[in-house]
Amino acid sequence: MSVILVTGSYDHEIRFWEAWSGICSRTIPRTGETGQINRLAISPDKRLLAAGIHKKVCIYEIANPSAPPQLQFDGHTGNVTAVCFHSEGKWLVTGSEDGTIKIWDLRSAHLQRNYDNEAPVNDVVVHPNQGELLSCDQAGRIKQWDLSENICTHELTPAGDIPMRSISLASDGSCLVAGNNKVRSVFRSPVVIFSSLTQGRCYVWKINDERSDLPRFQAVTKFQAHNKYLTRCLFSPDVKYLATCSADTTVKIWSISLNYEFKLDKVLQGHQRWVWDCAFSADSAYLVTASSDHTARLWEMASGETVRQYNGHHKAAVCCALHDGAG
């Protein structure tokens, strides 16, 4: 398959789509599967699909998705919130609300590493060097994990204990973006009226070479991305854009300058409810999004228009994965 597009939903279904026709070509059966689909990832060789399904992780053969999972990892005790493949498909990293980050050997099907994060994990990404992980959590921390030393080597808390919801790492490893939701309380006198204003904020760090005299993570900017909850932030493969998804039903596209300035380029409008996840095409020309309105959409980046809508889920579509590059 030249283009693999997959969505997951609270209806417990994983659907494969023909990207250009909008037709659902295959559905992974719900038989025996209990729990919502939280996260999806496609292996670099396009052979495997990893699905975080409630507290477990199922690995499916993409060529035969109707078959039972090829592998199943049951070590987490809370919702699985992150799944990422090693660049050569040797291992899979998962994060969970149980406060752990686990690395699973896909060849032996055994648990290889287990890191105690001490707080629910909201997102994990693999550094391009394949020797480090970066995670964010409910305690507001961003951590770098060194796989050779087997320890957390750096920790950032840019906004105190405000939970960090999502992180994204530039494909060249030069820049890190993390998004959180800052709630601001308002009181009005003499009659006290309480209200909470939520702001989805993004924090940006330049990542320096560890051999230099500069700090590993150098804070460069922060900006308000949305006036409601921020659910996902994601760099485009060419690192020219950042996409942010939100409870405000929109996806915002931010252009990135060479000196790490983020300028709002366009707002993608069309979803009717929360937008939970997004995935770029390999050439950064298209973006797929998944929403609580039960649909996924394919957007053309140049125009900001929807070019295809994927209908079929019966509940919120909360995750998506796209692989249209070389396998």
From TrEMBL:
Top-level taxon in the UniProt lineage: Eukaryota
InterPro entries membership: MLST8, Quinoprotein_ADH-like_sf, WD40/YVTN_repeat-like_dom_sf, WD40_PAC1, WD40_repeat_CS, WD40_rpt
Keywords: Repeat, WD repeat
Stretches forming WD repeats: 1-18, 73-114, 223-257, 268-309
Signal peptide segment: none
CDD domains: WD40
Name the UniProt record assigns to this protein: Target of rapamycin complex subunit LST8
Species, as recorded: Somion occarium
